[in-house]
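Standup notes
- HV: blocked on the assembly model, inputs below
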Amino acid sequence: MVNENLVKDVVKEPYKYGFVTDIETEKIEKGLNEDIIKLISQKKEEPKFLLDFRLKAFKKWQKMKEPDWAALGYKKIDYQDIIYYSAPKQKEKISSLDEVDPKLLETFDKLGIPLTEQKKLTNVAVDAVFDSVSIATTFREELAEHGVIFCSISEAVKNHADLIEKYLGTVVPASDNYFAALNSAVFSDGSFVYIPKGVSCPMDLSSYFRINSGDSGQFERTLIIAEESSSVSYLEGCTAPMFDTNTLHAAVVELIALDDASIKYSTVQNWYAGDEEGIGGIFNFVTKRGKCLGKRSKISWSQVETGSAITWKYPSCLLLGEESVGEFYSVALTNNLQQADTGTKMIHIGPKTKSTIVSKGISAGNSKNSYRGLVKMGTKATGSRNYSQCDSMLIGDQASANTFPYIKSQQPNSEIEHEASTCRISEDQLFYLQSRGIEFEEAVSMMVSGFCRDVFNQLPMEFAAEADKLLALKLEGSVG
Amino acid sequence: MEIIEKIKTNKSDDNLTEIQKICLHKLQSSPLPNPKNELWRLSNKSKLSTFLGYSVNEKDSKFDIPYPKNSQSTIRLIIGENCQIKLIEKNYSIQQLSEDELQKYIKEQISFFKQNENWSDLLNLSLSCKNNILGLKINGSKIPPIEIFSHASSNSLKAKTLVIFLEKNCDVELLQVNLGKENSSLSQSTFFCLKENSSVNHGVVSYGENRSNLLNSLNVIQQKNSAYNLGSLHFKFNYARFEISIKQSAGNAKTNIKGMQITKKDEQISTYTKIEFNGPNGFLDQINKSLADDQSHAIFEGSIIVPKIAQRTDASQLSRNLLLSNLAQIDTKPQLEIIADDVKCKHGATISQLNEEELFYMRTRGITLTEASKLQLSSYFQEIISFIPISKDKWDLLEKLLNEN
């Protein structure tokens, strides 16, 4: 039934975003110390409160130990061997896109994210981040008409310092974990979104992160604030070139939703995953957390994780407001020697809060894919509910799938339901499809797509189609 | 370190058995379980130190089996008392393991121990003197049901060890009863070896009294085509841990586990299970129930490990929990670790209180709230209790539990 030779014959699709842009960059020296942090802050012309925030975080980071509880194995990261700031050289001030280096625009064009006026995606505003800095943000004027602020975090520090000072680090404090502390000390750029009261953001907002240099880490920080009765859908994409070395990516994302506000945060993560022997690839250590502060607020995370050599990521929701809602929809695919330890935390603090978790893990090759999640009902979370579903699919007998759900309840008047299952691609179904004339590869891809349907349905249209294609591509040649 | 000193002061080095020496040596490197270890993270530290606080006393006080009346058809053994047994009948035989067999087997088991997983066993074997180790070899079929008792006396810390070999094609029903006295600690370790085609219905009933503590560890090795059915119940302990480790050494075996723990007042009872499939075609059906009331804390952690060799494993695990008070808490963590691809594995977990709709339905039929809750609880308990062998007709556990409630 499963034709092994056929599988072996399948030509593996190379990572198509693996090119390097040859561009003059400004890098600071390797290593991490207070002077480096002061230098980054100085380069970005930051106010004093931010430098203090960074230095405080750095002090905390120095006292912390790298976490080792995840089911991940990787060689020790030398934090002194990383460049913490790298930016393409450009003219002093960019007033319009015409002044951006054409090579950069071309790079984003190649990645399918055109930034120029003529070509830019309709109805999606993009903030393009290249190594440590934001290159361009489209549709800014149109958004400003609605009072929506969408810019790089460096700009926000200059123009909206009050908001940054008020909210930065309130959801993910610098001392939260090792990688969050590191990010707080050295974050270079990222996106800032502010949706004012009563505004439903007229278009999807998107950030595109591109790592270009092999020896610098990327530490971006995203902050989204949705005021009362506002709503926004935010998309995030990421790619990196192919290098033999491992590049560190440690990001922090903070979301804040006030009364009746809703934030939908979608990610398609396609960092370079390393080659078949596991050489190279991005180490992806990300802290993402949303705070449902207001009553009836809602935060929804959806993610498709296909890239990175190592993924360590637990997008979480703190459900404080009464009747607030948290959602997590995830597809994590690992192939070859990739390792992913991902999941979510749903912390129910306020009464009548609700959360839903749907996680689909697909492990192929020699990879390791773990779901790790926490659902906690606090003492005041009366009438709260959680439903979790974690399904794993194993392709090949070398891959591993683990499920570690932590469930804790201190509130009798709440309900938690969790279910998990593990299966493989059914040979009967495969045979059925093939007997109907569907090619083997296509049949597998259809089944994987069906397996992930619950999650893809939650993704914005453009992403859903891309995610489907991405999975098919990543799995090519791995079934047998 | 205190506990090690305590064992040593109680006996001079020369009086310690070889096993005690080995285990003490291992224990010295981690005299207390590491709280960072996932298996001990939630364990109440002060309760554990209370457990270890009682004096180590090897001599047992006189023990009367409190209930029920003995019936002719069961074989009753009390670890530490009448350990002499040799029954050779037409269909079956029950004999004590020789000193050599016992030593060899325990030593072999110790060599597989992992410091962070077998701390309770190491403590047990360090404490357990010769008299308190019972080794049995059971052979044949149509064996009368066996009841084995372990108990601790007030104000003391006791360790009892049980080793059971089930020979090929053997089929037996066995009930283990662990009884805690007021202000006492009992460390019970059981080692089960099921040979090919053997089958056992194993019951574990652990019933404490005011402020009694228990560390109960169960290690089972199942050979091919063996069937291991476990029904367990732990209640009324100030602090209790039930650690189950089951290895299907070559797969092709069946394991059924139905366990329950009930906590009240400020009690903490936890169950940790680890099921490893080291061969193909293994089967597991596990359900663990917890009920937490007052300010108590119930914990369940279960892991299922399916390596590459264990193709066609069919394993399911369900953790069902009832949280009945605002001050009580429940932690549950069912885990799957799977490498083989041709497997069917699933787990589920729920935490809730009594079903309000069902209560409402019964009340509309004229049943009082108390009675309706009792009915619901009895159906909740019954699923587990009916699975505990021997107890059915004699122990009336359901009545006991409902009255306690």
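- HV (later): unblocked. Chain B touches chain A through 34 residues (CB under 8 Å). Chain B has a mean pLDDT of 89.
- Next: hand off to the docking folks.
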